[in-house]
Known about the structure:
alpha+beta, five-stranded mixed beta sheet, Neuraminidase, 3 helices
Amino acid sequence: MLIYFILFFWQHFTLIASLKPATILELDVISKDEQITTGVEDVSETEKFTLQNITEEKSEAEEATIKIEQEAIAEEATIKIEQEAIAEEARIKAEKEATAEQERIKAEQEKNETEAPRSLIEKNETEAPNNTTKNIICDEIEILNRQNYVLNASKFNEISLLSISSQKVDGEEVMWFGNDGDDGIIAAATISGRLIRQYRYNITDDGDSETLSLGPCSTSGSETCLYIGVLGNNAAQRCKNRSCSLGKQYNYILKIIEPDISVDCADFTLLDGVTIVVDYNIEDSPVNRADCEAMFVDFTGDEVSGNPGDIYIVTKLRPYTELIRAYYIPISAHENASVGSILDDVVMEIVASPRIMVWTGADMSRQGDLIFGRSGTNNYLWTRGANVIVGEALEEDYCNKFGIPPDRGENDNQFETVAFMPDGKSYVEISECPRGNEGRLCNPNIWITRLRVPISYT
């Protein structure tokens, strides 16, 4: 019995002993879960605080970055403004230097032209011995400078009439000019392009004014006349013999006393003069009709047979340039004619077979020693000595030539005329306006070219 009791007790004790660790473990687990839960809560709070700190720091960094970028942009803008200011100062300085250099060059050129004996021509003229012959060294003539002005008169868009007067307005030379064709208008302007006055002259319905020259009205030289060459005859350019019926049979030159610009008068006052009929049907002429755009009047005459007031014209026969001739009308044929008269009995004389080219303009210097012939883009130059007649001079080959201005504009591509300035050392050119959809519309440019003309004496 005792043995059974002991066994029973032992079994129960063992069971209880075996259950106790589990209970303790369960209690430990419960305790640990509570610790873990508490820890998680503690960790969550820490993480929240850390994230908040990180967000705040990131925001501050971004703000700092933006501020730095803004400061950099502002700095770049400041630098750009400073660079632009420096560039503007440099541009202004360069313009001032360029202007000063241009003024210096201009002053030097004017000084060279006016101070004797700075140029060879002035030195030679100053030192010219008595009883010597003056000789122009033609092939050494060169351009000193060019200058241009705008002619503020857009209605004159086909200028073929051009001659420079000895009259002056406010110290400036006066030029006479007009369109080619039959409008019958001739105008006066300063050489810098200021229009002074316009005049009318009588012209027939089929007339075609193509050239203009100033020259003595008589051998005495007491008055100067305008010689308007109404010599255009386009159809007759194709004449090749003395039986041609193309174009007009007769052309004419109007000789008008040069108006005094200082005398006020209404615009478009009618100028009357002498009509000199031109007839090519003369002995030795290769054609009986011709076109003509080149004419000049001799101011000085020569020591042989030429006289002041002699008229010279050079024909224009485009397909048959070998037939062109230089014709001569002596002053004796027209100096005593009264205003309003028509001279239809003038007999011209052929004096030369000049250079074969299309002559679109011509002029002679007032000193009588230089002759220009215009063709295309060139002005061809001849010299004439005091003991040489014009015909002989034109029979020689040209001795120099000058092209159109290289820096010309779009309105400067059809030059058909040339005119010497009174000093004989400069010349003027004006181009016809270019043809456009609305006709010829422009304010023409006036080009003045100054020459260095070297001289020797024998």
